[in-house]
């Protein structure tokens, strides 16, 4: 049995898939989640997939005393993967203080508690939002691309948290950290037992696509058709959530088991840009379902085009995105069908 890993936000979309991959790799997992944007039943799904039930504590990472008790209860925690954060760009503009409190205080608490409880490493869930709209000569984006002023309080919390970790390690904190800047996670587990389940109207493209295909949403709006891209719609690097989850396992192995630098940064993406229109057309092709969609005006704050150069992660972590867009979109559709069968949506 490998080490014990604390996964904050572990019942969420990326956290649950990462917990599955950690357990498949032999790690013990303790999940901490306040269930503000997820459901405790996800723990049942993780157990169904892996045959192992992760420990679960319903705790808010902003509660220092409660987190201290978690570390005392599980004294063998060696590493942390920190997903727990508020993550809706639009909401962060409306409620900036909520985002600064949730996203920054939670990290500071963990960093303060790590030396006290002899926790060696942390993987921080960062984002390509730190790059803003890269200049044309910075596409695809490498880890050395300039950090741009954030477009939202959400994006700003990612940048600030990266700086907090950097400053903490620079000060001599006895920990190691990897910042994973990932691009656009999509899809669901191939079993369709866990997947993306947004509360209310989806903020992300793929759940909106699948809900429109299912008839839950009347129409999909594609924001903007006059961008400087081949078909006029925005371009993103869409990565399969299971591939992304496996990158966290590789990163944790590196932090805990190798003589690596105290702080490292990796882009986690496919290396390929895909337009919104291509997503719609590919989804229709692989599922055979015609979508009711239309163009709408540009949305404020949307970046025109960004995709990763994942070469560093490929070489240093020994990780690569392997799943095709077609298979990824099909997994998202199977998940939506499963939700309908269960009467959830």
Automatic annotation (TrEMBL):
> Pathway involvement?
Carbohydrate metabolism; galactose metabolism
Its required cofactor(s), as named, are:
NAD(+)
Q: What is its EC number?
A: 5.1.3.2
The residue ranges of the NAD(P)-binding domain are 6-329
Q: Write down the chemical reaction(s) this protein catalyses.
A: UDP-alpha-D-glucose = UDP-alpha-D-galactose
**An example molecular function term from Gene Ontology annotations:** UDP-glucose 4-epimerase activity
InterPro entries linked to this entry: NAD(P)-bd_dom, NAD(P)-bd_dom_sf, UDP_G4E
Q: Which domain of life is it from?
A: Bacteria
Q: Which UniProt keywords apply?
A: Carbohydrate metabolism, Isomerase, NAD
Query: Which CDD domains does the record match to this protein?
Result: UDP_G4E_1_SDR_e
- Report the SUPFAM superfamilies cross-referenced here: NAD(P)-binding Rossmann-fold domains
Q: Does the keyword Isomerase apply?
A: yes
Could you confirm whether the keyword Iron appears in this record?
no
Which NCBIfam families did the record assign?
A: galE
Tell me, how does this one assemble?
A: Homodimer.
* Alphabetical list of PANTHER family matching this protein: UDP-GLUCOSE 4-EPIMERASE (PTHR43725)
- Return the similarity comment: Belongs to the NAD(P)-dependent epimerase/dehydratase family.
What is this protein called in UniProt?
Answer: UDP-glucose 4-epimerase
Q: Which gene encodes it?
A: galE
